Give the backbone structure.
Amino acid sequence: MRSSVSTLIEFTSRGTRGIAFMTISIGCLFTMDRILCPTFCMATVRLDQISRRFGKTTAIADITLDIPDGEFWVLVGPSGCGKSTILRMIAGLEEISSGDLYIGDRRVNDIPARQRDVAMVFQNYALYPHMSVAENLAFGLKMRGMEGGQIQGRVQAVAEMLDIAHLLDRKPRQLSGGQQQRVALGRAIARSPQVFLLDEPLSNLDAQLRDETRAELKQLHSRVGITTLYVTHDQVEAMTLADQIVVLDQGRIQQIGDPRTIYTQPANRMVATFVGSPPMNILPVVYTGSGFQLGSQVLPEDIGAKLQPNQRVELGIRPEHIQVGPEGDLAVQVTLVEPLGREILLRAVVADTLDVFLNLQVPIAQEVKVGDRLGLRFDPEQICLFDPGCGDRLYP
Ligand code: ATP
């Protein structure tokens, strides 16, 4: 494999691009990857107790992350939780107040941004308006003193990979938002950096384009394999793209895990309610010794959790794990009906309470209207319990 790769790179650098591109166009993706990333460098990213303070405000507190080479990690959390600050510190655009940052084996705290070999893509693309797409793609390579023929080869390879080769002569203002976004990604890929940093790169796109581009981004990463950190507040992007998700809140890590673990075993109430749409229902209950009391109703306790009688806990259950029918263990009254096409989302208040609400989902064929009284049954295997004070998961 390596010999064919180096042959291809030599062809490109000698200007016999036709041969190289013929090879690319027949779909030999791994060879294209090698053109883009001809050198194999370890690109782990390690944050060791990193903090960032702005005056008396601590934006980032003691963050420790160890991102293996080639993985796609997503930082997710509500607005202001510190996602962009972490990315900017890795890029070298933000000072680190304390802690150590490593890219590969190199401690980079004091290394200027341009020497860190990372490429960052922002939400607003930040393309050079007076340059064509080709010039935008080539800019970073020229700055590094790459030879002309080689630049042309790489620009063409990236453009074909992102399906923007037909746009190379256009200026950014002559492109749609989605096309501009691809150019911004292409500019980063062309540099073949050790690390990609993507800060909400899809948030300016409309819903359909966003879904499409998200899928393409995932395929692209599996082809190029560059260590990637991706920031979003959109938990669907986090779930679909990530090898590992880092959930942040108020500058602190709440949980690190693969998407399935984050979804099924949230470390605390914040993660349980942030990830998932609609979010996990959280019900304030009191353990009676044999059941969970909620208002005047008692739900059966059939999960074997080790609790003390009269202990207050929060019971968590996702909408898809609640059976909704005319009868059940918990009586509720429907307050909102939202047909979504494939299913109907319901909002319902627990009977005899004024302020305990649940999100439910039922098949589109089920006839439900506001004011209906329904009965719920929870799947006991899917119940979580949380500490009502600190919010940590107590069970399972
Ligand atoms: P969003 O999703 O809204 O972009 P975020 O999670 O990326 O938010 P950051 O932009 O990283 O959040 O900001 C984290 C915290 O640091 C916020 O409370 C913000 O107000 C604060 N912060 C960021 N930059 C500065 C600054 N230059 N001076 C003071 N506080 C700042």
The chain has a mean pLDDT of 85.
